[in-house]
Amino acid sequence: RSQLGEVLGRLSTTAIQEGDFEAARAASEESLELFRELGDAAGVAYSLGALGFALLGQGSVDEGERVLEESLDAAKAVGNRHHTSRALHGLGLAAMRKGDLRVAGGRLEEAATIVSEHGDRWFLGVYCLPALAALHHLEGRPEEAALLLGAAEALRDAIGAPISPSLADDYESTVAATRSLVDAERFAAAWSRGRRMTPEEALAVVREAAPEEPGPEQGGAGLTGREVEILRLVARGMTDAEVAHALVISRRTVHAHLRSIDRKLDVRTRAAATRYALEHGLG
After folding, report:
1. Residues with Cβ < 8 Å from 148, sequence gap 6 or more?
2. Contacts of residue 218, Cβ cutoff 8 Å, sequence gap at least 6
3. In Å, how far are 66, 80, 93, 145, 194 from 179, measured between CA atoms?
4. Is residue 153 scored above 60 in pLDDT?
5. Whether 94 contacts 64, CB under 8 Å
6. Which helix (H) or strand (E) holds 36?
7. What confidence tens digit (pLDDT) does each residue in 254-265 have?
8. Distances in Å between the alpha carbon of 13 and those of 44, 61, 86, 166?
9. pLDDT of 176-219, one tens digit each?
10. Is 96 left (phi over 0), alpha (psi -120 to 50) or beta?
11. Contacts of 115 by beta carbon, 8 Å cutoff, 6+ apart
12. How confident is the model at residue 227 (pLDDT cuts 50, 70, 90)?
């Protein structure tokens, strides 16, 4: 029964890539039922993720978002970064379809970071980078979008991975729309520059070029939602390793957020950051 659940899960993800969302939904629902009966938490997270993508593919954005939130919670509970990254990516797509570009950016960025860290080059080149390119196009940043598209194309060429059939129309639309927003020479230059970069270099470049987009203000510091979450855990006395484990991210990602927090709060020590958190009700 465990193997049957696994096979059904694989069938659902294959159907998603082919664009057969009805078949994907049926297989993922059957897989989910089996894994729940078996008490397989990682399998439940996997099947929920596949079901969430199938629902998005059928246009059920709110329901898909709800299921993907369940998948994210289940994946984090067992510390599975693979399933965590898939759920985050799906949630980013859902937010983008609902027009919440700030939330979409945070989800997609986090998914890409996790995927890059655990070396899933296929998902990075086929899903993550093109989705982030689409987001940058919607934000009116066509050169960054073109750079990401170039980096994604180079990665797919290197590993022999085509764009999945279910993504082909959206991908071509993103390329055409991005090309329409910038003159041909600048588009070609950005695309070519992206092709010469590693995915990590491309992601770093577009992050650096991004305008500061704070989340809900906390004491006037302009911390993002993720930074507030990390600051809360630090104020509880957690080490960097414990924060990384709790949020299912890497220590490197935690360190990057802490540097940003220190800069925004104008503090130099962990104790000073903790004091700020306590003074502003974040402890």
Report:
1. 129, 130, 132, 133, 136, 194, 202, 203, 206
2. 228, 280, 282
3. 34, 38, 21, 9, 15
4. yes
5. yes
6. helix 21-38
7. 888 888 888 888
8. 14, 18, 11, 11
9. 999 999 999 999 999 999 999 999 999 988 887 766 544 444 44
10. alpha
11. 85, 89, 123, 124, 128
12. confident
Beta strands in 158-224 (DSSP E): none
d(Cα 270, Cα 42) in Å, to the nearest integer? Answer: 34
**Residue 221: pLDDT band by 50, 70, 90 thresholds?**
low
pLDDT at 148: 97
**Token pair of 136 as six digits:** 């940058």
In total, the chain counts a number of residues equal to 283
Nearest-5° angle of CA 48, CA 168, CA 111?
45
Residue 210 confidence (pLDDT): 65
The amino acid occupying position 115 is V
Measured distance CA(87)–CA(50) in Å, rounded = 9
d(CA 129, CA 120): 12
Start-to-end CA distance of the chain, whole Å, equals 45
Q: How far is CA 134 from CA 15, 122, 138, 171, 184, in A?
A: 23, 18, 6, 8, 18
Where does the pLDDT of residue 77 fall: very low under 50, low under 70, confident under 90, or very high at 90 and above?
very high
Q: Residue 180, Cβ neighbours under 10 Å: how many?
A: 10
Encode pLDDT of 89-140 as tens digits: 999 999 999 999 888 988 999 999 899 988 899 999 999 999 999 999 998 9
Q: Left (φ > 0), alpha (ψ -120 to 50) or beta: where does 183 sit?
A: beta
H/E run at residue 15: helix 2-18
